[in-house]
Amino acid sequence: MRSMFSFRAEGDEFIPPSSKDFVLPPIFGDNEFTTKPIFLVIFSVIIISIFFIAASRKASIVPSKLQFAGESVYAYVRNDLGKDIIGHEFMRFVPYLFTLFVFILTNNIFGIVPLIQFPTMSRISFAYVLGIITFGVFHYVGIRHHGIFKYIKDILFMPGVPKPVYILLTPIEIATYLIVRPLTISLRLFANMFAGHLLLMIFILGGEHLLQGAIGLKLVSPFAFAFGIAITFFEFLVQCLQAYIFTLLTALYIGGALADEH
Amino acid sequence: MSHILIAAGGAPNPLLPHSAEIVVGFIAFGLLYFVMLKKVVPMFEKAFKARTEAIQGGIERAEKAQAEAADALVQYKEQLSKAQSESQALREDARVQGAAIVEELRAKAQEEAARITAAAHASIEAERQQAVTSLRNEVGALAVELASKIVGEALDDQARQSRIVDRFLEDLEKSK
Lengths: 262, 176
Fold this sequence. Notes:
- The structure holds 2 protein chains of 2 kinds.
- By secondary structure, chain A is mainly α.
- Chain A is built from 8 helices and no strands.
- Chain A is globular.
- Chain A has one domain.
- Helix content of chain A is 72%, strand content 0%.
- By secondary structure, chain B is an all-alpha fold.
- Chain B has one domain (16-175).
- In chain B, helix 2 packs across helix 3 (158-175).
- The chains are: A mainly alpha, B mainly alpha.
- The interface between A and B is large, with 50 and 39 residues.
- Chain B: It holds the Pfam family ATP-synt_B.
- Chain B: GO terms for molecular function: proton-transporting ATPase activity, rotational mechanism.
- Chain B: The chain crosses the membrane at residues 22-41.
- Chain B: InterPro entries: ATP_synth_B-like_membr_sf, ATP_synth_b/b'su_bac/chlpt, ATP_synth_F0_bsu_bac, ATP_synthase_B_chain.
């Protein structure tokens, strides 16, 4: 879409990509359920489901290549993010952690998949949704595990702390549990994807713009493209890392809610 | 937030959620969670469990086979040592019995020899006696005949005849 603008803007001032480029218009009329990010999210659910159902459908002792691929991801989330962090009750949360990981990972990687090239999580709504679910899950788990009064008491008055410290600690704890945790977990994911996509746009669109400029600028443009490609690799790392971090933090929060001492 | 707004020159605030996206986000994530919960996770867990059991079962089977083999070995060793001690006992028995048999046979042979010797002695004695008797009779008859011839007196009286012969023989023996 930008490229069409750029062609038209040939010779004009370079318009740097902005948050406008993340607001994609509805594809069908003005139905706002038909935007690209929404289609991407639905598409991600479909391809993830197909892949993992195919991988696990005939799961056997000796795995096929497909099963091995799906199973490796599953086993990684199950053991490294679930078992090691949550502890003996981890199995209840594995479906959630696994869904979270593959959902975020797939939607993030959309950012560098040719023709798709849009990280869904750069739309903060989706990051908020996941943050809210995680927020709900870990509080629910904590309340179920400790009982509502003990859970709230443990948050308000962290055990094993001298009484005067509560003046300082209690507001921090309240803010941590109610605002900071769901907000930071969402914002971290969103901001990484947003910034990464912005960075890619700057180099790719900038290179394109340079190509349409004077001869001197044309010579410089390959460097911009090369850098764009380098950034793409870097983005792949960030995309995987963010999926990992989101899932890891969720597991940590759940583990913390289940722990007997905060 | 505001600096993004300003920098973007009236661009929309990217931190504000979009209601359609929120709705779709929840539904999409919920659907995916459902698929994972019902279809994917149970199958993978089943495979993991089967794999764990296969490995554990294999180890258990191997351990059992090993234990069985060890048992069999102990049994065989026991049987072998039993057989060895049995054969040892049999050999000892046979040796003792053999010795007894040899001893018995020797005693029997000695007895037999003694018996044969005794029989021979008896028979010799009897024959000697017989010879002595017959000799005495013959010698007596001859002597009587001779004497009667010489004396001319018929010594037909049996008692006298024998007395004379006896006296004659005694004299004969004394004179030797």
